[in-house]
Design a protein that fits this description.
alpha/beta; Aspartate Aminotransferase, domain 1; Aspartate Aminotransferase, domain 2; 7-stranded mixed β-sheet; 12 helices
Length: 382
Amino acid sequence: MSASQSTAENPWEAFRRQMPIAERFAYFDHAAVAPLPRAAHAAITRWVEEAATLGDTVWPTWAKRVEECRSLAARMLNADTAEVALVHSTSEGIGLVAEGYPWQQGDNVVTLDNEFPSNQYPWLNLATRGVETRRVPAEQGGRIDLAKLDAAIDTRTRILSVSWVGYVSGWRADLDELVALAKRRGVLLFVDAIQGLGVFPLDVKRTPIDFLAADGHKWMLGPEGAGLFYLRREHLDLLRPIGVGWHSVAHASDYSRIELNYKPSAARYEGGTQNMVGFLGLAESLELLVGAGQAAIGERILATTDLLCEQLQAAGAELYTLREGDRRSGIVSCEFPGRDSLAIKQQLLRAGVVSSARGGKLRFAAHCYNNEADIERLIAAL
């Protein structure tokens, strides 16, 4: 989306034209799997053609673009490039911390009981090493009670792990408050950012979280299997690298030199061959998002979901999602009394409206290119 396009017309309509899905569906499922923008589709298609007809003769070009993907991610976070690793999933990023941290028997992790499974199983898996996972009950509507988190932390707590945005509730945590809590109690903060990264601003220099992971296939509009892991540079030697491979060392391209000398960056955690085609697609999507700006995208999404909430309630829905100031997100969950949410989801799909059913709730997840016509189509289908 060029500057001339943005000034000549509504920038969100220009963004919408970058999304082929909008020509067919009213797509409200970005909290599950996002559709690809035209540029990402073109980059992936180009890679397929080059891989078939040119083989590795163009590998250096691919590799350069993958590093540009890393730079775009760092720019989005206001992080140093050396603090960003390219991973295959949020689960992999969480695993880098869960398996790489120097645990001692009797240590514990504090998280919430309504976290997505990916932010629970890696911690629960540490039980065989004598590490306890404390799952704090979440409040109604997904609200986070900082006092309850605080009460669960003790002198053996090492990590506090919380999602930025709840995958069912849509509650967007106040990361500044969580950072303050973690620092006051002397623990490290891990953030599962998959439901917010790309569409809400996060400056890791201003909000100094310790670790973050997010796959790119939701709000970042990338393909599955291409995501990001961030850690503060000061923790680089804290986490023991796992899945070590040729790509982990500083002399990665010198295959005859066997010397375990890790890269002085988060790339040391990448191990082996990358999902090159995935990151080529993600780079295009990040370029689109960074160009539009996370603050502007977030404001647009909140305005759209505010309208969506009004229309859903007028149609008889009971909102599960709490819409409180900056705790709002792009996720809206609701119920229709006496109706099965999965059946409604299927009914909507037949009408060309894509949504999800999670936790017994009907879930809508709007991006910045969704417009009033999409909402009207949804309500008409209901």
